[in-house]
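Chain entry —
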Amino acid sequence: MRRTTAFTLLVCSIFAGHVAWADDVPRVIPYSGYLEIDGEPYNGDAQFRFRLYDAGGTLEWGETYSGDDTVPVVDGHFDVYLGAVTGGLAGDFLRAEYLTLRIYYKEEGHSGYTRVYPDQVIVPVPYALWTTASGPLTVNGTLDLGSQATFSGDIDVDGNVALNSNGSIVAQGTVSGTSLEAYGIFDADGVDATVDVTGQLTVTDQFLVDGGDLLLRDSIPVLSTEDSGDAFGIG
């Protein structure tokens, strides 16, 4: 009997006092996982089915990655955006305090789907939800990223912007906040990107502003060392 293991590696969580989202804007959940079959990481294309159930076991949402949406798996690792195939997630179920994610996969050359056990609990903090549109993200509190987030619009934070050791931001718009603590990688890679910090900017890894503006009204303690290979650069 074949044994299958799949689990979440990174689900980007946004911890905030309040995140302002328009109710009619579609959203996606970034999902990075690992697929292991008979003790070996899977390599190759795979089809996936994702299903979200509420606490009562009612199916609230689902989508299938097949055909042109087949997912490449490299050394067991795969990445998808839940909601991308169906045009985004929407509905009251996104406000639920408890959801479980059920996953099915189909390998290349196989005819049927295999269910992955156990189902995974998704706890709202809120979920790693962001809009599929290019509008701004407004956070009335602290924005704390534990994974990578890519924004084509603006990021406006009333409080602090913090990236832990696994966090990174790739921004093409304006990023503004009271302070910014970059323990991960911050990359403002858009030509018109602007980073506006009214307080202290702390950098322990890489802080890159490529062709944009850095507006700082306080100090920059750069904690990286030459031996670590970390860098602070304004291009």
